[in-house]
Amino acid sequence: VESVFVVSVVSLSTDIPFPIDTSHMPRQPSRTDYMVLFILGALWGSSFGAIKIALHGVTPLTVMSVRILLAGTALLLLALVRKTPFPRGRQNWSKIGWMALLGALIPFFLVPWGQQQIDSSLASILLAVNPLFALILGHYFSENERFTLRQLLAMLVGFSGVLLVFGENAFSSSNGNFWPQLAVIGAGLGYTISGVIATRVKGASADSVSATIFICASVIVLPFWLFIERPWNIHFETESLLALAHLGLVSTGIAFLMRYYIILRAGAVFLSYVAFLIPMFGILFGILFLGETLSANTLGAVVLILSGVYFGVQKKL
């Protein structure tokens, strides 16, 4: 289940799961590796603010479509330049199709849909619960690992942070943010399920699977976007265009290259530490650039969720 956990963590913001071998740690991380990890956390954390800005001029469907198409084009070109062999076999392609749906298409829509009503910083906090979903799925889908008492308590702590975010009217119809918050959490669950599927893809490299997922997602989303949104009629504001370019090319494209760099140099387990950086940068950028504020409940939720994640996966890190 360790591979399930690591895949789920590193797909937390890129939304792209990939098969990795966690049994081998290439070497001890260097200062450069820590610096790259820090920058990667900033890039992924900035995606929530970019989504919020993009939504000023376009719909969630357009945010999803443009992000997927930009990333898909960039990763396809990269794969062609590197002459990366694509996955083979009907079973692999079936799994990649499910990963494109659960790890890209649905989450890429749910997060901006939710962020129409909630702050970017709150979205980054809610997605931080993703590793706890990995522990739950690992318990039921792994034959050699079950919950320990410590992990069970850690999950209770982490999910209590989620309830704190929802507030005392969490399940009341008067809570207007209930469905947007639930949508973001649902996106995190989709990432985790796609991570479980990713561990079952055989004979394919991480970069080829990631590129193929985006290419498949692009093929699926393009006709829907053209038919429903009619993008030639959309008046894109400058700030929305810049935010969309950042999402597709920087938070996804460049971040993918940095992620792969870290995997090769320091290993996937080291990369999983980024799960603790993403919400911190998401909160920071929301406050600095969007004028967002944090309530006492939200601050308490940050502490509870990250504490739950830390103690729940401590032995794996």
From TrEMBL:
The chain crosses the membrane at residues 34-55, 61-81, 93-114, 120-140, 152-172, 178-197, 209-228, 240-262, 269-290, 296-313. Its main location: membrane. The keyword Membrane applies. GO terms for cellular component: membrane. It is a multi-pass membrane protein. Keywords: Membrane, Transmembrane, Transmembrane helix. It is found in: Membrane. Residues 36-166, 181-311 form the EamA domain. This is EamA domain-containing protein. The lineage of its organism: unclassified sequences, metagenomes, ecological metagenomes.
